[in-house]
């Protein structure tokens, strides 16, 4: 999810992975809420999906900023 709609570039891939791991580890709302309130595999899976969407949003903003600067 984090790498959807980003350029196929090693830096973009690395940033997407690092952002996903950051959001998956620190679990901002609602990532942590999903993990705590939905038990079993569904909560684990949905918290990863939400972390991926957060990473996608931040990565898209970063790509747009880089395109404006360049």
Structure write-up:
- The chain starts with 9 loop residues before the first helix and ends with a helix.
- The chain is an all-alpha fold and 70 residues long.
- 76% of the residues lie in helices and 0% in strands.
Helix and strand arrangement:
Elements: H1 10-26, H2 31-37, H3 41-69
Helix pairs in contact: 1-3, 2-3
Features:
70 residues, mainly alpha, elongated
Q: What structural class should be given to the helix and strand makeup?
A: mainly alpha
Quick one: biggest sheet? Answer: none
Counted by DSSP, the helix tally is 3
Give the radius of gyration: 13 Å
Uncertain runs with pLDDT below 50, 5 residues or more?
none
**Overall pLDDT score:** 90
Number of strands: 0
Measured by DSSP, the beta-strand proportion falls in under 5%
Straight-line N-to-C gap: 26 Å
Shape: elongated
Which series of helices and strands comes N to C? Answer: HHH
Helix % is over 70%
Please summarize what this structure is.
The chain has helices spanning about 10-25, 30-35, 40-70. It has about 70 residues and is mainly alpha-helical.
């Amino acid at each position: 999810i984090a790498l959807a709609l980003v350029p196929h570039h090693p830096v973009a891939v690395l940033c997407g992975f690092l952002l996903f791991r950051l959001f998956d580890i620190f679990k901002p709302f609602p990532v942590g809420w999903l993990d705590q309130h939905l038990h079993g595999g569904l909560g684990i899976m949905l918290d990863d999906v939400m972390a991926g969407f957060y990473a996608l949003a931040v990565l898209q903003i970063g790509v747009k900023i880089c395109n404006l600067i360049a």
